[in-house]
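Thread: quick sanity check before group meeting

JM: Hey all, I'm pulling together slides for Thursday and realized we never actually wrote out the predicted structure for the chain we discussed last week. Dropping the sequence here so it's in one place. If anyone has concerns about the input, flag it before I start.
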Amino acid sequence: MTLAAFATSWRFTLSAGILLVVVALAAGVFSSGAAPAWIFVAGAVLVLAGLVAIGVGMWLRARDAIEDVLDGDDDPSGPTGPKISRSDKR
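JM (edit): ok, ran it. Output follows.
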């Protein structure tokens, strides 16, 4: 799995992890066994993986932006429109 693919996986991992944590908390109300605790641990691991994926995605975007600025080919503020002088305004 590439970093870019991992960075986009946060949508699945974060939502699945939160769902597992909620299920574990609900199951813990009715069960006194160890199953809800293990479900909670699995959910917490998925939430952590989702947060790491968000961080990796932010790092990749920042790295691309810095690379674009250092290339100097493009203006980092975006393309500029046509210049209008004061005499051209109507």
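AS: nice. The mean pLDDT is 83. The helical segments are 3-8, 10-30, 35-71.
JM: adding both to the slides.
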